[in-house]
Amino acid sequence: MLSLANNGQAQAASTYASQRNARFNDESSNILSVEDRWISTYNNLPTQVQQTAVTNTLASAIDEFRRNNPTLTSWADLKALLPEANDKPMVWIKIDATMQRLLKMFWSMDIVGGFNPIKLVPIQVYRPNPDEDIYVAWDGQHTLVALWLIATQVFGEDPTNVMIPVNIYKTHQKAEMRDSFVGHNGGEYKETLDQYDKIEQMIYGVRIDNSNNPEWVVIEQKQRIIEHYDLFLTKKDNGDAEQPGAISRMQEVQKLSVEALGWLCEYLVAVGCHSRAVEEKEMVMMSYFFDRCRAAGITVTKQFIQDIAIVAKRHWKADFSPFSIFWTRASIAYNVWHSQHVTGVHARFNKEPIHGYPFLVEQFKKDLPQYQFPISANNSNFVPTTEDLFI
After folding, report:
1. Structurally, how many domains does the chain consist of?
2. Nearest 5°: phi and psi at 183?
3. pLDDT per residue over 274-321, tens digit each?
4. pTM for the structure as a whole
5. 320 and 233 part of one domain
6. Burial class, 192, CB count within 10 angstroms (exposed 0-12 / middle 13-18 / buried 19+)
7. Rounded distance, CA 19 to CA 216, Å?
8. What Rg do the C-alpha atoms of the chain give, in angstroms?
9. pLDDT exceeds 70 at position 355
10. Is residue 122 in a domain?
11. Residues 157 and 180 in one domain
12. CB neighbours of residue 122 within 10 Å
């Protein structure tokens, strides 16, 4: 595996990637009030989104709540319909930002608009200190925020006087609670965790909870590699998938070995991903390439990676986006091959590794004959001719 020490990829503290990755490096919990959670999330949104989307959506959600619940005129009316559980003042309930996914404000506002007390699940909390009136929510963040919006924005109540139902778990084992959170989210009032959300929780679980879950440990090792190369994981919902260094394809992060991910990150930096986001098909193609290298026992060195990066940049600007010259040239080569070797079947070129990878490897072989390259694992006989490759 490539060494993570002194490889010349120095991380600049001011990069967006380093700022995003920094949240994993605080080994303590980040406890916030509901109001602070809402405000901090709101403040991180673009001004236009704040002033239009959030404001308008919240107003619409409040109107929808009132239309659906005409008999509810106060929190007391609503409280009478909520499940019976431990009742605690809303202000006593805090959110551990390291145990909860990034707040999706629009999801909480959707809960407000379609609120039905029969479907509400009490907030899952634990008490970190028996001498303090603080209960930390380890699950139910979006429901809690929705209740806070109803109390403050619909009924104009002081949250100090608002009692909400909670389930109190008598444990301080955050690793167990995090594992439960990852495993049980899904349903109408609990939006299912996606791959990014799960990966984020795994990283926190190892770094904050000292979890020894083998799958989580491997993911945290991968995060260290990504941090080392000043890249970062995200998803489109976070609003930063176009930032320099952004990786928004989680499938490949999960599938690749730790070693192959290190090769991939070295390549991504070599082709300029410190100044742009990682494109989806770029992630698919090059993850497949390095995974094949690992499976075939190919010796992958920094020089090997630098050399293939030079080839990619010279011929197609390392651009694998769907309408790039790479796919245009590969498609032409495939159609020529198909006309010569296949009869009775219409040529159907796929902009995926099944057809893109054979073209990629033959190009590398042509330009870098000093190296070995692995064959495809896909069921395709396509081999482009030398004449159809880039000159």
Report:
1. 3
2. -80, -20
3. 999 999 999 999 999 999 999 999 999 999 999 999 999 999 999 999
4. 0.67
5. no
6. exposed
7. 22
8. 26
9. yes
10. yes
11. yes
12. 18
Q: Confirm if 285 and 353 have CB atoms less than 8 A apart.
A: yes
Report whether 2 contacts 293 (CB < 8 A).
Answer: no
* Token pair for 110: 């959707």
Residue 72, SS3 per DSSP: coil
Domain carrying residue 250: 1-25+194-278
- State the burial class of residue 348 (Cβ atoms within 10 Å of its Cβ: 0-12, 13-18, 19+): exposed
Give the residue, 222 or 43, on which the prediction is more confident: 222
For residues 214 and 226, give the distance between their C-alpha atoms in angstroms, rounded to a whole number: 19
Query: Is residue 86 domain-shared with residue 171, that is, in the same domain?
Result: yes
138, part of any domain: yes
Q: What is the DSSP string of 256-322?
A: S-HHHHHHHHHHHHHTTTTSSPPPHHHHHHHHHHHHHHHHHT----HHHHHHHHHHHHHHHTT--ST
Length of the chain: 391
Q: Report the DSSP beta bridge partners of residue 87.
A: 165
DSSP string, 352-385: SHHHHHHHHHHHHHHH-TTS--PPP-SS------
Give residues with Cβ within 8 angstroms of 277, minimum separation 6: 241, 242, 243, 244, 245, 246, 247, 248
